[in-house]
Design goal:
The chain is of the alpha/beta class. The protein has one domain: 3-Layer(aba) Sandwich (Glutaredoxin), CATH 3.40.30. A 7-stranded mixed β-sheet has the order 2-1-5-4-3-6-7, covered by helices on one side. The protein is globular, with a radius of gyration of 20 Å. The protein starts with 6 loop residues before the first helix and ends with a helix.
Length: about 230
């Protein structure tokens, strides 16, 4: 016969599980930090505009190399691969939610790391969308005219864009690709970058949990996205 635990015992067992989870996350992070350095990559060329998103004319834009995304004293670059195809009217609602959050903490990331959001749509379209979302703290670049997305699996052969993040490291030899993580962990297994957004994690603290919630506009986006 099953024994019903009182609330105090439930909380005690929950705390033990939470500590175990924390320790597991730290073990995974340690393994990630111990990865061998990845291959050198070419000095990709992107297009970007000024910090003021209202300046969105062709003469406002400039070419920016991958090496120019590294500031003095900061040898690590965190890139969010924004799902925003060249022919799409808007970016993925799920990616947009992640960047809404990253925009809020960008200045904290920037204290020790370089950070950029890179999408395949042309720069004017990217910046117009960013202005509407209020992304005033992120460095936004277009990879429209480069093979960057395809080379790092942020784009499928059919042009479909993939959500994920990549880390690049600058050494005396050049720029290395260090690590990438995609929303799909494996076939049929998603939630690979959930920890980048607090939304689901906040939901997980409530009695009803995250349920089947998805960002507003998700299903309409999936129906409208070109195959």
């Amino acid at each position: 016969m099953a024994t019903t635990l009182n609330r105090s015992e439930q909380l005690r067992q929950l705390l033990a599980e939470e500590i175990e989870l924390r320790d597991h996350i730290e073990r995974v992070a340690k393994k990630r930090r111990e990865l061998a350095m990845g291959p050198l990559v070419q000095d990709y060329v992107f297009v970007e505009g000024p910090k003021d998103l209202s300046r969105n004319e062709p003469n406002d834009f400039k070419q920016t190399k991958l090496t120019e995304l590294f500031e003095n004293g900061k040898d690590e670059l965190f890139v969010y691969h924004l799902m925003f195809g060249p022919d799409w009217e808007e970016a993925c609602p799920m990616c947009s939610m992640w960047i809404d959050g990253l925009n809020g903490i960008a200045r904290h990331i920037g204290e020790t790391k370089n950070f950029a959001v890179i999408g395949k749509a042309d720069i004017a379209k990217l910046r117009a969308y960013a202005k509407k979302r209020g992304w005033t703290n992120v460095r936004l670049l277009s990879s429209h005219d480069s093979t960057f997305n395809r080379d790092f699996e942020a784009e499928e052969p059919d042009g479909m864009q993939n959500p994920g993040v990549s880390v690049f490291v600058r050494t005396k030899d050049g720029i290395h690709h260090y690590y990438s993580k995609w929303a799909p962990l494996a076939e049929g297994v998603n939630r690979g970058i959930d920890l980048l957004s607090p939304v689901w994690n906040v939901f997980d603290l409530t009695p009803s949990g995250r349920g089947e919630w998805l960002p507003s506009g998700w299903w309409g986006f999936m129906e409208d996205t070109p195959d």
